[in-house]
Amino acid sequence: MREFQLTDTPADIVKVYPKASDFFKKAKVDFCCGGDQPLQTIIDKKKKPIDGQQLISSINESYQKWKEAGNKEVNWDEVSPSEVVNYVLENHHHYLTEELTPLSQFVTKIYRVHGTHHPHLEELFKYFHQYKMEMESHMIEEERDLFPLFEQYEKNPTEQLKNRIFNLNETMIKDHEYVGELIQKMNELTNNYTLPEGACNSYRITYERLSELEQNTYQHIHLENNVLFKSVS
Ligand SMILES: [Fe+2]
Ligand SMILES: [Fe+2]
């Protein structure tokens, strides 16, 4: 069975074993925007040292159990770009389209009701809505301008199309960095979505849904940056 090494990149590890992202998130190791350097290099650059050997062993242990439970990994290198696009649309764009408006109502509600006693909710409200606005326009650009090019390129791989894809990818990667920062700020602000004592039901639902949003966003960006955008080279 495959064993991950510290020389592998977090992006490649998550590509094979998506649940490894939980370990990276806990260890504060970026696997989506800055995840294509060897894990050891990322660890060496960290201000707060972490035990890389222990991290990789925990991932390998969990991966082994996951495989033994009959799970199959997706070989993304064999999936066509248009299939990756469909996967992203179904699992990430659709999710955001359905989720952002109701979640906005929750974020707004807890800010209005509890903002006086919990001042961080004002910043949370602002970051969330910056994220919402950015992602909504970002998804329009991807769906309207970028994604159709992958299908065209599959049928007719011209140099001109390739350059258009490269240029748009670059803009999208910058957007990803920006939304990644907003997600990180929301996480820090809420201490990784830890509820204050006596939090009401709306507070709990908001934090749970924001935490899910974070997880979904990291997978979303990872798939685009590390699988889809690299499918054309
Ligand atoms: Fe996207
Ligand atoms: Fe994107």
Automatic annotation (TrEMBL):
UniProt-listed Gene3D superfamilies: nmb1532 protein domain like
Chloroplast in keyword set: no
Domain Hemerythrin-like span(s) in chain numbering: 87-230
Keyword Transcription: no
Alphabetically ordered keywords of this record: Cytoplasm, Iron, Metal-binding
Domain of life: Bacteria
CC terms in the record's Gene Ontology section: cytoplasm
Main localisation: cytoplasm
Intracellular or extracellular location(s): Cytoplasm
Molecular function, one GO term: metal ion binding
PANTHER family per UniProt: IRON-SULFUR CLUSTER REPAIR PROTEIN YTFE
UniProt name for this protein: Regulator of cell morphogenesis and NO signaling
Annotated source species: Gracilibacillus kekensis
